[in-house]
Amino acid sequence: MKQALKPWSKKKRSTALGPVLRVPARTRWSPSGRGFLLALLLFLPAAAGCGGSAEKPVLRASPLWVGVSVEDITPDLEKYGTLRPMAYLFTPPVRGVKDPLYARVLVLDNGIERAAWVVLDTCLIDRFFCDAVHSRLTTGIRRERLFLSAVHSHGGIAHIQEQPAFQFLYGAKKPELLADTAEKVAAAVDRAARSLQPATFSHAAMDLERLNQSRRPFSRPPLEDRGTDPEMTVLVFSGEAGEPLAVVSNFAAHPTLTPTWQEPYYTSDFVGVFNDAVERRYGGGLSFPEGGGVLSLFVNGILGDAEPYYPDPVEREIQSWEKRIEYGTRLAEAAFPIVDAARARSGRAEVVLAAGSFTFPMPEVVPAHPLIELLVRVFPLITYDVAMTALRVDDVLVSFFPGEPTTPVGLGAIKNPLKAVSGLHVVVAATSSDYLSYVPDRRQYDEGTGTGNYERFICMFGPQTGEIFSTAARLAARGLY
């Protein structure tokens, strides 16, 4: 693998749009992005037939089996020495553990397809970590059917990223920590795959008021507020007696309430509070790690410009452990009626389970700010073919996004269009299976050049980044409906 990975450069090269599509070097991403985007559009009819993959998904309902497990992945501070949380730039070293970091695993199997969905209490993971997990699996789950989502907690694990820029910003890679963490996650996936039991599936969704907000009106300079995705979707997997086995909740909000600069502890932020509340309510008063009967998996959504709801400009700037508990509890209480609505529906014992992907060359870096340009020149990015992936579970389509999409991209260019064309319920799982960049749309990109326009400042691939990634996300879902 290492021979195939190259630092970013401006040299043109031939690249592949999936296993069956070849694009000439002249269509390689240019600073304007027109060549690459044109290539996507020209090859759209051909790509539609295979979703970026050489195989055609089998869309046939079959009896569902489910396995769940959880694993504590909190790094041992005594074993690994000085560690930093994956929080903000140059955060002080970790001083302790506020709450454990977990890998929560859901394995789905309908006899035709098997997939593993892992949700990690950390800020971000890259495709190299996903490869490391897969290489350690023993239960035969294919690489393209292994989906890993990071909840984007800024109190998560650093030192397990491969990209040189991330290592500079958040801490040098510690190979032993990376290997140990991947081993723990793989062991949890294997446990879940060995504990499959018959299950039914149902879901429900509801718009939640005053639980997330756009951070754009607070930006400097003032930028237009284009709202957020207010919808929470809940997927419920139940046992033969109707008892819930796993609850997956998808909602958009940045977990940036903790850690504080003064108290840099490992934490899952409000996500851990939310999962604990759901597990205790539906698991007999116990959390899953304590022996409760249901595993809660909070999956972050279209979070690029969304944050927890604190409308007062002064209050929104305050980080505290109390806010983590308050918001996590408030979000869980809003989720309970949605979980109940899903459970009240007649669950399906036979479901369609299918996955798709679309692979394209990583766009050439077009830094949005001189500081970013300096960073990637000193620490060149490792380039590779990017995979956008999707998973269909009965009448729900999950689009896995390798970064942080803003609302116009995630909602306006992926979620709503896929809902319209597929007739399925669609959710976007951000910071999943890789991490590349913030992804704003062209209007957000053009609204300002300073650090106040944060989504543009962190964007790595130029003004057409949103169009490229949203097009690839839609292509990944083709063939699943």
List keywords for this structure.
481 residues, alpha+beta, 5-stranded mixed β-sheet, 4-stranded mixed β-sheet, 27 strands, 30% helix, 25% strand, globular, disordered N terminus
Describe the model.
With 481 residues, the protein is an alpha+beta fold. A 5-stranded mixed sheet has the order 10-9-8-5-12, covered by helices on one side. A 4-stranded mixed sheet has the order 13-15-16-18, with helices on one face. A 4-stranded mixed sheet has the order 21-23-24-26, with helices on one face. α4 links the parallel β9 (114-120) and β10 (146-150). α4 (127-135) packs across α6, α7 crosses α9 (321-344) and α11 (407-422) runs parallel beside α14 (465-477). It is globular. 55% of the residues are buried. Mean pLDDT is 89; it is low at 1-32 and 44-53.
Give the percentage of residues in beta strands: 15-25%
Query: How much helix is in the residues?
Result: 25-40%
Number of domains: 1
Work out the helix count.
14
Largest sheet: 5 strands, mixed
Cross-sheet strand order for the largest sheet: 10-9-8-5-12
Content-based structural category: alpha+beta
Q: Rg from C-alpha positions?
A: 21 Å
Write the layout of secondary structure elements.
Elements: E1 6-7, E2 15-16, E3 22-23, H1 34-42, H2 44-48, E4 62-63, E5 65-72, H3 77-80, E6 85-86, E7 96-97, E8 102-109, E9 114-120, H4 127-135, E10 146-150, E11 156-157, H5 164-170, H6 175-193, E12 197-198, E13 200-207, E14 212-214, E15 231-238, E16 244-251, E17 265-266, H7 270-282, E18 295-300, E19 306-308, H8 313-316, H9 321-344, E20 350-351, E21 353-361, H10 370-378, E22 382-383, E23 385-393, E24 396-400, E25 404-405, H11 407-422, E26 425-429, E27 438-439, H12 442-446, H13 454-458, H14 465-477
Helix pairs in contact: 4-6, 7-9, 11-14
